[in-house]
Structure formats: C-alpha cells, structure tokens
Write a structure and sequence with these properties.
Layout (H helix, E strand, L loop, with lengths): L9 E4 L14 H12 L3 E4 L10 H4 L6 E4 L4 E4 L4 E5 L4 H11 L4 E6 L4 E4 H5 L1 H4 L3 H9 L1 E4 L2 H8 L5 E6 L2 H14 L3 E4 L5 E6 L4 H12 L6 E5 L5 H6 L2 E4 L5 H6 L2 E2 L7 H9 L6
Parallel strand pairs: 1-2, 1-12, 7-8, 12-13, 13-14
Antiparallel strand pairs: 3-4, 4-5, 6-7, 6-9, 9-11, 10-11
Helix pairs in contact: 1-12, 3-7
Length: about 280
C-alpha cells in the first residue's frame, strides 16, 4: 500500500538504526515529528529488540507513548499499567539445549529472561572482543548480569527465556549458524539487528505479529498502520504494516520487505517519511 490510500492511526518504530541516530540520540526533528503525529491521535509505538528497561530514557520519557513492542515481539507492554498484553517465550529446557549446541563454537551468548539480560561470567569477560562498536559494548556491560554459568542458572530458575543473542567474530561462521538454525529450528525466529549478532526468539515472537496483535486490540485495520525499520528483525513488521518504511541505512532484507525507503537514521529519515507520507497536504 502506498501513501494516501488510508489514514494512518498507528506507527511502530524500530529504535537502533531507525528512530535513533548512530549516537543513540533522538533528534529534535524526529521528536517533533512524533509529537505532531501523537497530537493528531496516532498511536506511536516503539518496536525494538531491547527489553523495556534498556530502551533509552529519551524514548521512554516521551509522554504520548501508551504501548511498546519489545524483545523482537516477545512482549507487548501496556506502558500505563506495566502489564504484558502478549508474551512469547522459549521454554528454558529448549534454551539450555540451544546454548549447549553453541558452546563449542567461537562465540559468546546471553539471554533475556524476566525483562533483563543474563550472561555467563566467562562470556561477559570477553564481551569487549565481540561487541561490534562502543554502543554494543555499553549495552552488554550495562544490561547484563553475569552469572557463573548461564545454562545452570536457567535450569535453576526454571522460567521461560525471551531471547537468546549470540555474537561472532567470523562473519562466515555467523552466516552458517543463521542458516543452520533457520533450517533446523522451526520453533524459532532467527534474526539479527546489528553486525556480528544473531538473535533467537520463539517463532511467535516477531515484531510483525506483535504489531498485528496490538492493531487488533485497538480495532485498527492493518491498512492503517505504518512501520519503520532497518534490519532483519524488522522484516516481519515492514511486511505486515499497511506502509513499511525502511531507512537509507537499511539491510538488503529490510529494503526488500519495505514499500518505501526514506533517508538514513542520521538524516532524520523518520521525520522525512512522516512529512511525505502522513503530513503531506495537512497544515
């Protein structure tokens, strides 16, 4: 669907590489565009691979947010009550099995459980070698609690895992692992959001499915939704939204899934697309 065919009532936005620029800042231009959309009665919904507490304060503090899609769609949260409206998790036994499969590989991994990140101490100590850039390392340091051994910790906790994330130094190995997981694990959604990483969620934990669930809850036809994204974990959302917009810095997969391409995250691409596709013709 292209602009003008339906009034947009819900906009879902990926954060890293999309709404936020390369410095993880929310530009004044993008913020002003979201404020204008919210004043027009449009629901503005962050849709991120992060868990809620890891969303930057410059986004969490926006006063017009009512919902958030987090952990690649593993959770849909009502921000006014703090209640999870949707939850999709990997059984802890399956998570331990997957981690045991990863153990022989030259990689590190962590997981999200109970809206927080957990990591074996040995992997935490090696994070600086695997993080692709400064912001990734800060995320690993600030939003992961190291435990002596992650598989044993999960077995002791006995609760579902929201996401497993792994990091590789070898791009070819990363690609092979992604292909193997996608082929062998129909119970998983296999995606990526930054260089060097692979992310595993329940097959039902996808941004596109969470967007559909929220639209159904609010009585909004999918034709009246818009989504912004830049990478593989945004593809389901770009495809399912009425208008899918990828960034100028988007991956090939995101570009192929989108209806429209805007400027990059460092060029206020969200604001530019809203001006063209939502606000055009409005005073």
């Amino acid at each position: 669907m292209m602009a003008g065919e339906a009034a947009i009532k819900l906009i879902a936005l990926d954060l890293d590489g999309t709404l936020l620029n390369s410095d993880k800042a929310l530009s004044p231009e993008n913020r002003a565009a979201l404020e204008r959309a919210a004043r027009a009665g449009i629901e503005i919904v962050p849709a991120t691979g992060r868990f809620y507490e890891a969303i930057p304060e410059n986004v969490r503090s926006l006063p017009f947010l009512h919902y958030a899609i987090t952990i690649n769609g593993a959770q849909l949260r009502d921000l006014r009550t703090g209640r999870a409206l949707l939850r999709e998790e990997i059984p802890w036994q399956r998570a331990v099995e997957l981690m045991a499969w990863l153990d022989p590989l030259p990689a590190i991994y962590d997981c999200y459980m109970d809206d927080w990140g957990w990591m074996s101490q040995a992997h935490y100590d090696r994070a600086a070698d695997y993080a692709p850039h400064r912001h990734s390392l800060e995320m690993l340091r600030n939003f992961r609690t190291p435990v002596p051994e992650l598989k044993a910790y999960l077995a002791q906790a006995g609760r579902g895992v929201q996401k497993i994330q792994m990091f590789f130094l070898d791009p070819a190995l990363r690609s092979r692992v992604m292909a193997q997981l996608a082929q062998r694990c129909p119970d998983l959604a296999v995606t990526s959001s930054i260089p060097r990483n692979v992310e595993l969620n329940s097959a039902r934990a996808q941004k596109g499915l969470a967007l559909q669930g929220l639209a159904d809850l609010l009585g909004i036809p999918m034709a009246e939704t818009m989504a912004f994204g830049d990478d593989l974990n945004d593809v389901s959302m770009l495809r399912s939204a009425g208008i899918g917009v990828c960034m100028g810095n988007a991956s090939a997969e995101a570009l192929a899934a989108a209806d429209w391409q805007t400027a990059s995250c460092d060029e206020n691409g969200v604001a530019a697309a809203l001006a063209r596709l939502v606000f055009s013709g409005n005073s």
